[in-house]
Amino acid sequence: MSDKAPKRPGTRLRKLFCLAVFSYFALLVLATLSAGLVRGFFAPPTTQPIAFPHTTHADKLNLACDFCHSGVKQEASAGVPALSVCLSCHRAIATDRPEIEKLLGYERRGEPVRWQRLHNLPDFIHFTHQRHIQAEQPCAACHGAVERMLEVQRVRSLKMGWCVSCHRSRGAPRDCATCHK
Amino acid sequence: MDRRKFLQLMGLVSGTTLLSSCGSERNQKELISYLVPPEDGVRPGTAAWRVSTCSECPAHCGITVRLREGRAVKLEGNPDHPVSQGALCMRGQAALWRLYHPQRLRTPLLRTGNGYRPIGWDEAMKRIAEAMTASAEKSRTNMLLTGSTSGSLATLQERFADTCRVNRLPEFELFNHAALRQAYQLLYGRPRLPRFGIEDADLLVTVGADLLETFISPVGYAHQLSVARREKGLQWSHIEPHLSLTGANADRRLTIRPGSEATLLLWLLQTLAKRRRYARRLPQQILDALPKISLARAMDNSGLPGSSLTELARSLEKARHPLLITGGVATAQLAGGQVALLGCLLQWVLTVPWQGLDFDRAENFGRAGDLRDLQQLNLSLQNDEVGVLIISRTDPVRHSPQKWRLDENLRRARLSIAMTDLHTATSRTTDLILPLTQNFERWDDVEPRIGIHSLIQPAMAPLHNTRSEGDILLELQQRLTGRSEAASYEKYLQQRWKKLFSASQLRAFINKGFVTKGSPRTTISLRTKPTVAALRRIAPSEPLPAPATVITGSIRSFDGRSAVLPLLGEIPDPLTTVTHGNWVTLSPRLASQYGVKDGEELRLTKTDFAVAQPARLQPGLPDGIFGLPIDSLTSGPPGIDPATGEALRVIGAIKAHPTGKHLALPILSGSPSQKGRGIIPKPIHRKGKHHAEHRSLYPEPAYRQYRWAMAIDLKRCIGCAACVASCYVENSVPVVGREEHLKGREMSWLRIEPFYDDQGRASFIPMLCQHCDYAPCEPVCPVYAAYHNPEGLNVQVYNRCVGTRYCSNNCPYKVRRFNWWQHKWAPPLEKMHNPDLAPRSKGMMEKCTFCIQRIRTAHETAGKEDRLIRDGEVIPACAQSCPTDAITFGNLLDPQSAVARLIKTPRTYRVFEGLGTEPAVYYLRPD
Fold first, then answer.
1. CA-to-CA distance for B838 and B849, rounded, in angstroms?
2. Whole-structure pTM value
3. Could you give the CA distance from residue B376 to residue B365 in angstroms, rounded to a whole number?
4. Is the ipTM of this complex over 0.85?
5. Contacts of A77 in chain B (CB under 8 A)
6. How far is A121 from chain B (nearest CA, A)?
7. Exposed, middle or buried: residue A9 (CB in 10 Å: 0-12, 13-18, 19+)?
8. CB nearest to B8's CB, from A21, A81, A83
9. How far is CA B696 from the centre of its chain?
10. Rounded to whole angstroms, what are the CA distances from B624 to B131, B237, B594?
11. How many helices, marked H, and strands, marked E, lie in chain A?
12. pLDDT tens digits, one per residue of B902-913
C-alpha cells in the first residue's frame, strides 16, 4: 500500500506535549520514590545525648525493662527513667567513664536529658502500654531484642496495618475508636 | 476544550497534590526525662484533679480542676460542695478561657499619654508607695475599692486599711441586692441575704428574682429547684414584667406591668394577713400601717385578672411550705426599696414559720455597698479629696451612670490604680494597671456563705508576670509601715488557716476543697417599730408608663464581666439564640408597630439614656416592653434609685424609633416554632400511630456488652447551656466568631434549641448527635469515616474524612459540624486543648462523640480490673455540668443502669422517630 494516512498538522507538537506530560509524571513518581527512600532507609541515624548501652544493662545486668521504664504497667506511656533512677547506681558506679561523666554533668546542671525519640506515634493515636502489658505482650514483640542493641533502633514500622494485624490475630478490639482519638 | 484535553489537564493538576501531601510530622521528636520521678498522682499521660473554687461571679461554686501535663484543661463542679453540688454554669466552664486569654495583662502598665508602657513590679510598687505617703501630706485620703471579697483576703484588706491608713470603701458590685439587704436590716436587724430553703418548699413564688441567671447563686438555685420539683412536687410561679430564662422555666409565669410589683405585694400581704392561717403573724400595728389596696386597684395596677390574683393568694395560703423571693429587676427600679420591704415582710408571714430563711448560713454580701457609695466616691474625686485610689476586681467606670463622668473624675485622683486580669473600662482610665494572678494560679480562700470556707488552689504556676492581690497589699504594707502581716500571701494564708481550722478541718479543707463550720441556729424577730415607720412611708405608685425597658442580667456574661471571654459570645443566648453581638428584644406585635424586623436597628431614648441596638423579635415577651441585656448598654445604667442605691434597670416612657440601619445579627435558631415537627411532642404526636411504622432493610444491630445511650429529661432542662460550654471545653471545639455564624457555620457539638408555642411558652431541647442505630450519615460517607462501632456509637474517624460533607447533608438532626478553616488558637489558648482528643484540622467533619475519650478511659480502668464498666463510671462532659441533672448517660444493655430505667417511662420519646433512624438519645417530654 503506498497510501499513507495524511499526517495531521501539528502532530509534532502533540507528540511533544504527550512526552512532556509523561516525563512530568515520571519525574513525580521518581521524586516520590526517592523521598520515601531517603526518609525510610537512608534516614540519618539518631544520636542520643548519652550513649546508653542496653546490652550492659538489660542483658548483662539482666535488669527488667520496667525497672527504668516504669510507666509501662500503670499508664499510657512507658517513659524514660528520671535522672535519679540512673544516678541511684551511677553516682558511685563507673564514674570515670566519659558517658557517666556526661550523666553527672546533667545532674550538676540540673538539666534533664533530651533523648531522641525512636518510637513515635502521631498525635491522633491513643496507645496505652498498660493494656498491652496486661495482655502479656512481651516488650520484644514491638521493640525487638533491645537487650542485644548497643544503640537502639526501631525495628518495626509501627504503621497501622502492622498494629491491626496483631490485633486481628489475637482477638483484640479492632474498632477504629480504640486507637483513633 | 474537548474531553481529552480536560482529562489531560486533570492528570497534570493531580500530580502536584502528591507533593503537597508530603508534610512533616508535627510530633514530639524528643523524650525528655524528669530529674526526679514525679510525685504520686502526677504522671505524664494521666490526669490529676485539684479542688478549687470558681470566681467568675460572687456565687463562688466549688470546682475540681483537671490537670494534664501540668496544665488545667477542664473544670468540673465539686460534687460535695454546698454551693454548687457538683454542677458548674457556662460562665464557670468558660473560666479557663480567662486563664488562657491571649489578651491577659502580662506586666504592670503605666499610662503614658494615650497608651501604656510596661514597667517592672518594683517600679510600680515604688510609685504607689510614694504616692500614698505624699497623699497624706497633701491631706488627701487613700482609698481601696474592690469587688466582692471574702475570706482571708478580706481580713488582709482590713489590716492593710488599718495599718496604712487607707479608707476601705464598701465593695462595689452592680448586682448588689442593696434593696433586699436594707429591707432585712430594717425588719430583722440582719443586713444579710439569707439562704433560701428552696429544696424544702412546695410552693415558690418569685417576683423579679432571676434565680437561674444572675440572682445570687444561680447554680445552687437551679439544683435546689430541680430537687424540690422531683421530691417535693414544688410548684413555681414567676412574676415579672418581661420574659427571662427564669420566667420561661417556671410552672406559671404571670406578666405584670412594670412598676406594679409593690402594689401586688401589698395586696397579697393584706389578703394573707386576714386569712386564718396567718392571722397572728403580723402585729396589729403593722397591719394598721399597711396602706389599703382593693382587689380592683391591684388588678388595674398590675394588669392581672382578678382570678390570677385570688388564685395566687389561695395557693400561698394552702401551701405547707410557701416561699416568696423578690429581687432582680423588681427591686432595681424607683421604689424598689418598697418592693423589697413588702416582699421580705411576706417572707416573715409565709416562710419564716417553717424556717425557710437561714440567716446563719447567709450569703456573704457583708461588705457590699451600693451605688450611692460610688456616687460618694465620685463626689470625693470631684472635690480632689482622693489621693491614691486602688480599684481591684471591679469595674465602676462601666457600671456607673454616664452622667456622673466617673472616668473623667478618676483622673483627679493623685494616682489611680486598677488591679485586674484583663482590661476593663476602668483599667483603661487609670494611671497604673497591676495584673492579677488568676484563680488557677494562686492560693486563696473565700467564704461564699457564712461558715462555708472554700479553697482556691493553684493548678499551675502563673503564666505571666502577675501577682496576687494579697501579695501586692502585703508588699505595700511593708513599704509603707516597715513591717507586714506576713512575708508573703501564702504565709499569711497558712497563719490564718492554722488559727481558723483544727488539724482535721485543715486536712479536709485541702483535700475536699471546703469546710463547713457549724454555727448556732439563731432565731430572727421582727422589729415592729422601724417596720411600721417604713410602711407608713409607702405610697403605692402607678405602674411605669409603657413602653418600658427592662435591663436584664445575662446568663452569658453576668453583669457584663464575662463578655470578654470569646467562648461565651459563641454560645447562643438561650431565649434569642443570638451569639456574637448585642440586641434589644421586643414582641412581634410591637415590632410590627415600629415596622422593624430582626436586625433592624432601634434607638431607645429617654432624658439622659440612649441606646441603639438591632431588634430581635421575642415571642412571649409582653407587648410594651423592650428587653435590653446588660451588655447592650454602651455605658452604665441610666441612673440609680436614691432610696436604695440600686442601679435602675426598669425605666418607663421610653421613646423608640428605627434608625433605618440594618445590622446582621447572628441568630442560630432556624425558627422559634416547631412548625408541627414534633420535636417536643404535642398531644397530637402522642396519639399512637401518628407516623406509619417503619421497617428497616438493614440488619438489626447486635450489641454484645455495651450500647451507650443517653436520656435527657426536658422537664429538668432549664436551657442554661452549661452543658454546651462544658462540651466546648472538653472537646476543644473551636470558637469560630461572628462572620462564620452569620454564614450558619456554627461549631457547637451540642446546642440548646428553644421552641415557643403560640402562647409564647418556651421549651428547651438539647440537641446533639443522636448516635442512631441506622444513622443516615454512615452509608453515605465515601471513605467510611463515619461508621457504627460495636458499642453503639456513631464514630467519626477524623483521619479518613476527606470533607465531602455528605454526612452532614444526610443528617436529619443537623448535628454534624465541618471545619471550614484551620482554626488557629491564639496563644496561650492552645494549652487548653484536651490531649485525649485528636486535633481536628481543616476539612474534617466533627460531632458529638458521647465523650468517647471518657469511655475509652473507663474501658482501660475497667480492663485493668477485669470487669465491665459500671453504671455512672462514664459521665460525659455535658451530663457532668448540668445543674439540674437533666442528662443521664449509660449502658442500655445493663438492666440496672439509670438510662435503661429512664427509657421506659411514659414520657419517653425520640426525636423524628418516624424516620426510622433509631436514635440512642431518648428524651423525656416536659409534661
1. 12
2. 0.91
3. 20
4. no
5. 44-45
6. 8
7. exposed
8. A21
9. 44
10. 52, 22, 11
11. 9, 1
12. 999 999 999 998
